[in-house]
């Protein structure tokens, strides 16, 4: 199965230093290198937060988890974070397994994520 990747900057959004990455298909050993190549220039830029919208992701392997972990590490070095929204049940199950890892942020939808980001930004402004 292939992987469709769409990356767009959140212009005019509450968190304008963020990008959303929409993934559709299968994120596995065959498709992970393409995602890694497409994320590299974004991660080397001024982006602080990356939102992975996984509504159309059907499968993820350890290669995909490695890409997420590497992105998360890079973002944390820039005081940002990776967030994941709209997971299918099978993807949610994988994330439930890794949820016990500290620092992984998983949200039900953009509204929950927006509430979190607003609180985070408010705490930094105080």
UniProtKB/TrEMBL annotation:
GO terms for molecular function: anti-sigma factor antagonist activity. Belongs to the anti-sigma-factor antagonist family. Residues 17-96 form the STAS domain. Coiled coil: none annotated. It comes from the Bacteria. This is Anti-sigma factor antagonist. It comes from Pedosphaera parvula (strain Ellin514). NCBIfam families: ant_ant_sig (TIGR00377). InterPro entries: Anti-sigma_ant, STAS_dom, STAS_dom_sf. Pfam families: STAS (PF01740).
């Amino acid at each position: 199965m292939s992987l469709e990747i769409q990356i767009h900057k959140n212009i005019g959004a509450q968190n304008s230093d963020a990008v959303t990455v929409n993934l559709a298909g299968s994120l596995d050993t065959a498709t992970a290198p393409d995602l890694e190549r497409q994320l590299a220039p974004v991660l080397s830029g001024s982006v602080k937060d990356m939102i992975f919208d996984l509504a159309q992701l059907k499968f993820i392997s350890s290669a995909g988890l490695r890409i997420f972990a590497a992105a998360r590490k890079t973002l944390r070095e820039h005081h940002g974070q990776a967030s994941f929204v709209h997971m299918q049940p099978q993807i949610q199950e994988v994330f439930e397994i890794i949820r016990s890892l500290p620092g992984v942020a998983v949200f039900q939808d953009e509204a929950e994520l927006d509430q979190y980001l607003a609180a985070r930004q408010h705490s930094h402004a105080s």
